[in-house]
Amino acid sequence: MTTPESRMRVANRTQVLDLLGRSAPVSRAELARRTGLSRSTVSSIVQELLAAEQIVETTDAAVPRSGGRPPSLLTLSGAPGTLVGVDIGHRHVRVAVADLAAKPLAEHEIRLDADNSPVETIDRAAAMVRECLAEAGIDPKRDRVLGVGMGIPGPVDPHSAVVASPILANWIGLAPGEELASRLSLPVRVENDANLGALAEATYGAARDVEDVIYVKASSGIGAGLVLDGKLHRGITGIAGEIGHVRFEDNGPICRCGNRGCLEKAFGGTRLVELLQPAYEETLSVERLLELAQEGDIRVNRILDDAGRAVGRVLADLCNHLNPALIVVGDTMRHSESFVLGIKDSIDRFTQPDTAAALDVVPSELGDNAGVMGALVIADSASAAQPGTI
Ligand SMILES: [Zn+2]
Fold first, then answer.
1. Which of 143, 250, 253, 310 is most exposed, with the fewest beta carbons within 10 Å of its own?
2. What spacing in Å lies between the alpha carbon of 33 and ligand 1's midpoint?
3. Residue 214 lies in a domain
4. What one-character-per-residue DSSP string does 244-267 give?
């Protein structure tokens, strides 16, 4: 099993590779000066990149020798390289091909019921990757594609990279990374989508300056990703952060996960639509609820406030345990001020005062791109992941 890398380390390595991709051969000292990283950090990243044969070292013959060794210079061993991110949600597939600084070169998105059609979803995702690569002018046979990061809307076992949880029942037994890799002949690393949201916000978004963050992914369902001490925390079976399946009502309805009274069953977006539908003539959806909320609809905002408070109540206990610096609210519910403020109110009320004082609750900065950006964060380590692990 591979150890999750510090998002800081990923960001630093990306910075070094990006500079090497844009510059003539440079020395270690020059890399440190131009990236602002410490010499020891640069040295350690360079060692790793040399070992992976992503860069090569040459001596600078142009500098006259005056007794000492000529300085060694570093260059990329090939073209700078491309990353591929695949974000599979309950209702969509989004693909981005990007450079090493995660700047998109091509992006595609389709609407699709991923929960009920895993094989079709992976087929479509593979086709979209090929289309995006072609659109970006990248030929994987000729150009360097470092790897593919892939997010799916359920837990993945970190040891086997297989879906084993009834939370994504139709995907049980499937190894989505292997499936996509066999279709693309590229290395693929797979991860839970809320975890990718957390990594993305911690690397490029609202949490880039903090080490401990809870990313809440709230839309039709509710989940969370945890970055603790700068590293993604998955837990032994990949279930860490599944706050939607924390018991909220003792005698509540049976949930898809097999328990009853789960938070998601009581306050997930799907349930909120059911609660509100009888009061409306039009057919509601989670997206429509958020539009109505922004138009100032009192009934919708009341329900979103209740939902935020309920999610915040569960998060409050988690915050007492983990003492994070930030909660980032992502996915569609980030658009609801009532929902975000509801979470904040519960945190202030139910966490230890010191915990609450040190904690901010903010909407996602990366918005709908969080999943695919997180997939890009793990893409460049896809080839380092051992087969059968994530
Ligand atoms: Zn459940």
1. 250
2. 50
3. yes
4. GGSB-STT--B-TTS-BSBHHHHH
Per-residue exposure over 33-58, b if at least 16 CB sit within 10 Å of its own CB, e if not: eebebeeebbeebbeebeeeebbeee
Are 252 and 290 contained in the same domain? Answer: yes
**Spacing, Cα 117 to ligand 1 middle (Å):** 21
- Number of independent structural domains in the chain: 3
CA of 10 to the centre of ligand 1 (A): 33
pLDDT digits (tens, 9 = 90+) for 273-324: 999 999 999 999 999 999 999 999 999 999 999 999 999 999 999 999 999 9
CA distance 290 to 272: 11
* Neighbour-count burial of 320, counting CB atoms closer than 10 A to its CB (0-12 exposed, 13-18 middle, 19+ buried): middle
Distance (Å) from CA 257 to ligand 1 centroid: 4
| Same-domain status, 100 and 19 | no
Please write the tens of the pLDDT for every residue from 120-160. Answer: 999 999 999 999 999 999 998 888 898 999 999 988 998 88
The fraction of the chain above a pLDDT of 90, given in percent, is 69
The yes-or-no verdict on residue 3 having pLDDT over 70 is no
Per the domain annotation, does 389 fall within a domain? no
How far, in Å, from the CA of 249 to the mean position of ligand 1? 11
| CA 232 to centroid of ligand 1, rounded, Å | 22
Phi, psi of 121 (to 5 degrees): -60, -45
Return the pLDDT at 381.
78
State pTM to two decimals.
0.82
